[in-house]
Specification:
mainly alpha, 83 residues
Length: 83
């Protein structure tokens, strides 16, 4: 069974109430991780090339249109006292 079929069956179970959200989320994370890992393995030896101009322009426009949020400032950790 391929990943698409597994996802389809899990979604079907979820919609019928036979699978809870936490179980569905855990399985999707596993499938996503394995798919990403396989993609990286397959692309590892590919020669790098510039993206097609249309794709490059679309990505740049999407980045420009994405709202920018500053990261939340972290409180500095208190320094440990050395004895």
């Amino acid at each position: 069974m391929n990943d698409f079929d597994r996802i389809w069956r899990m979604m079907d179970k979820f919609m019928d109430g036979d699978m809870d959200f936490d179980a569905l989320e855990k399985e999707f994370d596993k499938i996503f991780f394995h798919t990403l890992q396989k993609t990286v393995e397959l692309c590892h030896d590919l020669e790098c090339c510039p993206p097609p101009e249309g794709l490059h322009a679309s990505l740049c426009k999407a980045i420009e249109c994405t709202p920018q949020c500053q990261p939340k400032k972290r409180k500095p950790k208190p320094k440990k006292k050395h004895k």
